[in-house]
Amino acid sequence: MKIIERYIFRRALVLFFASLIWTLAIVWTTQVLARINLVTDSGQSALAFFEIASLILPSVLPIVMPFAIIIGVAQTLSVMNTDSELVVISASGASRWTTIRPVVILALLASIVSFAVDNGVDPYARQRGREMVASARGDLLSLVIQEGTFRKIEDGLFIQIGERMADGRLGGIFVADSRVEGTDLIYYAKTGAVVERNDQDVLVMNDGEIQRKLAGGDISIIHFDSYAFDLSVFSAASGATRLYPKDQTIGYLLDPDINDPVYKRAPQSFRAELHRRFSEWIYPLVFALIALSVAGDARSHREARINPLVTAIGIALIVRWMGYFAANQVQTRAWLWPAVYAIPFAAMAISAWFIRTNRTMELPVALVDRLVSTLRRLGDRMMFMRLWRSGGDASSGGAL
Q1: Alpha-carbon distance 171 to 161, whole Å?
Q2: Residue 226, SS3?
C-alpha cells in the first residue's frame, strides 16, 4: 500500500479496535448478567463464572465486528473530510481507490476473522458452555453445602438444607415440588444424605413426612422412616448434554446425525444455521462499503441534515435486521434461503453503485426530517428542564 493508504488504514484500524472493545464490552456484559443467576444459584466458584463469561465472547464477536467496522470507517472518513484531507487527496490526482483500498482490506481481514471465529471457535465454546451449564445445574452437592437458603433446582422444585453435620449428613431437609400441575408436594425430614445408587443421585431422607395437596384442596400427610427422592434427572451425569444447531460444528451441519433428537424435531433449523454461517461473515465487507458510500466522497457535509456516521449506522441497522429476519424465516420456510445471501450481496451492489457514480447514500428525506425534529424537540425539552432546574436552585439559594 502507498503511504496515504497506510495512513487511512492505520486510522481506521485504531477506531475499529476502539469501537470493537467498547461495543463488545457492552454486549458481553449484558450476556454475562443474564447468566449470573446460574452460577450463584448453583454455588459455583468465581473461576467457573469467568470461564462461562469468556465462552460467550466467540458468539458475540461476529455480531459486533460489522458494527465496529462501520463505526471505524465512517468516523475516519468523516473526520478526514472535515479536515479537508479527502479534498487534498482528490486534488493531488489520486484515484478513489486510494481511499477505497485500505478500507476494503480492513473489511476483508475482519470478514476472515469473523468466519474463523463463527465456524472454528464458537461451536466448541458453545459446547463447553453447555457442559458447564449442565454441570452447574446438576451439581447438587454444591447446592446442599449452602445452609439455610432455598435453592431452585428447576421450575417448581426447591430445596432447603437447615445444616450440614460433621459426619456429612444433612439436617432439616425441606423440599417443595409443584412440577405436576394440580399437585403440590412438600417433603420434610430431620436428617438425610445425598448418595449414589446405580449411577444415580438420590436424596435419602430419614424420619420425616410428606404433605400432598391436590387441586380440589384435599390434603394428605404420610409419615416415613426413610424415603428416597430421585435427583438423577438434575445430575450432569444422567445423560449427554443436548446440543442445538448453533452448538454444532460446520462438518456436523453439513452431515447431521439422523438419529439426533434435535434434528428429528426440527431438521430445517440445521439448514438455516448452515446458511447463517455461510452468510454472516460477509457483513463486515457490506458495512464497510456502506460507510464508503455515505462518507467516502470528498465533498462538504455541512448541508447534511445528520452526521454521516448516524446515516451509515442507520442504513446498516436496516440491512442487518433484514438479514436476521430472512435467516429466522428460513427455519420455517425453506424456500427463502436465497434471501439470506441476496440481502448482503444486494446491499454490496447498491453501495458499489453509489461509490462508482460518486453519489452519496442517504436515508429517505422524510425519515431524516422526522428524526431531526424528534432530536430537536428532545434537545429543547432538556434545555428547558436545565433552565428550570437552575432557576429553582437559584431561587432556593436566594431564600436561604
Answers
A1: 7
A2: strand
